[in-house]
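Duplicate of #3305? Posting structure anyway:
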């Protein structure tokens, strides 16, 4: 069934139909399309544009179609162009003439704009729940690891000692910002395009505030041309999804490194690992690698929609049909990555002893040794040079700073005393960092309490 066939005298070429149709992917909108139609016809009846009797028949018919699609009794078939024509045709088949009145005062342009907004809004809520679940897992890990010492890195080289809780807190901040972005997008997009018509509204006395309220929007859109031509919210959503994917990819990269034989910081659960077809000893971090790899796929969706929209004049153009498949794919990809990553993280075992030993071997306490000297009146630049000399001694002997004898310390600088060992212990190095945002236990306690309130 074509919603536009009256003006045409020839059948559509089958190849044209195949190229033009969108039902094969926009059938995802069936619930949103039906919800929008129920709101629309409810408003039409309130305005006296259709009778209450027709309204009741249409609503009952639409609800029946919805239930039949959900149960699998009604299947999508190829002769229909899109979800809109499918629903309207099935409605007319079931209730007769009244079904033809549903589209009064409406265009497919504002209908698809509505469906896309409703769908994106629903998916934002679901993605937000998944991000929150990841944040809860990170917070749990932080609470359990405020005393788990590990090296912090810059340039992938060991820099200063931190805790695993502190490291996880950095990702908590990232994913918390992601939730904020999702919330901002949802609020900004929550305006109702229904009633905008093809581009110039309609002569029917529609109550757009009514349909907006029925569908849970804050208000109707204020310009009918922008209403049908706007896909900013799709671009914003894909941007937010790209940032989420980037954050997941960064964390995945670290887990891949930590899982390597050289690091051995983590042990992945068997349920989130795979083996090799030829090498029996292998246990591969495939989930982390796939999350890292799928990030490029999400980026591709953002680039594609930006490219599609960049040259489109107002108002609606068929190019905009290209927004759907890539958006659906990006949403599915990020949802899958979030769920799997959270599961992987929750089952991962951290090798705390290996992490602490790695921090000691990497001279992460060198800055604290320099600070020790500064506390005894040595200028920082001189202290920096003294500790650098001590590092050379350690490298030559294959030991850490804490393994040097007091005589070896004093051979480079007589300022050192017996308490240098306490000053450069992992525990002291971390505990002394007490400013807000630092890895010290007191500072982390404040941050964890703040995170608990944020999630509540």
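Output from current build:
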């Amino acid at each position: 069934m074509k919603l536009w066939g009256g003006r045409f005298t020839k059948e559509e070429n089958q190849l044209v139909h195949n190229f033009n149709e969108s039902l094969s992917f926009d059938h995802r909108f069936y619930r949103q399309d039906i919800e929008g139609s129920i709101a629309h016809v409810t408003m039409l009846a309130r305005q006296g544009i259709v009778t209450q009797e027709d309204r009741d028949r249409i609503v009952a018919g639409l609800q029946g179609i919805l239930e039949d699609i959900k149960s699998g009794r009604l299947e999508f078939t190829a002769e229909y162009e899109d979800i809109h024509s499918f629903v309207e045709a099935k409605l007319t088949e079931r209730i007769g003439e009244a079904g033809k009145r549903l589209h009064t005062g409406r265009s497919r342009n504002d209908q698809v704009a509505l469906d896309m907004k409703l769908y994106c809004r629903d998916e934002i809520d679901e993605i937000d729940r998944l991000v929150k679940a990841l944040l809860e897992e990170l917070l749990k890990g932080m609470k359990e690891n405020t005393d788990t010492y590990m090296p912090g890195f810059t340039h992938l080289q060991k820099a200063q000692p931190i805790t695993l809780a502190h490291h996880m807190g950095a990702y908590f901040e990232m994913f918390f910002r992601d939730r904020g972005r999702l919330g901002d997008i949802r609020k900004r997009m929550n305006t109702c395009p229904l009633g905008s018509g093809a581009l110039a509204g309609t002569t029917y006395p529609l109550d757009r505030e009514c349909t907006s309220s029925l569908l849970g929007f804050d208000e109707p859109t204020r310009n009918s041309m922008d209403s049908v031509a706007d896909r900013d919210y799709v671009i914003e959503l894909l941007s937010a999804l790209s940032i989420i994917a980037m954050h997941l990819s960064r964390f995945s990269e670290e887990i891949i490194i930590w899982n390597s034989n050289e690091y051995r910081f983590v042990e992945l659960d068997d349920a989130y690992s795979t083996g090799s077809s030829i090498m029996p000893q292998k246990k591969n971090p495939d989930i982390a690698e796939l999350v890292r790899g799928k990030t490029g796929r999400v980026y591709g969706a953002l680039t594609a929609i930006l490219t599609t929209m960049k040259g489109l004049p107002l108002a609606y153009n068929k190019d905009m049909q290209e927004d759907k498949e890539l958006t659906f794919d990006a949403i599915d990809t990020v949802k899958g990555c979030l769920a799997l990553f959270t599961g992987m993280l929750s089952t991962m075992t951290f090798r705390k002893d290996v992490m602490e030993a790695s921090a000691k071997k990497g001279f992460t306490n060198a800055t604290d040794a320099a600070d020790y000297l500064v506390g005894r009146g040595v200028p920082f630049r001189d202290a920096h040079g003294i500790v650098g000399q001590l590092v050379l001694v350690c490298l030559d002997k294959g030991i850490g700073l804490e393994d040097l004898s007091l005589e070896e310390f004093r051979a480079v600088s007589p300022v050192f005393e017996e308490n240098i060992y306490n000053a450069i212990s992992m525990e002291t190095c971390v505990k002394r960092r007490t400013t807000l945002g630092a890895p010290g236990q007191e500072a982390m306690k404040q941050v964890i309490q703040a995170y608990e309130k944020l999630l509540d």
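Confirmed duplicate; merging threads. The two ends are 50 Å apart (CA to CA). The beta strands are 149-154, 157-163, 191-192, 219-220, 266-267, 349-350.
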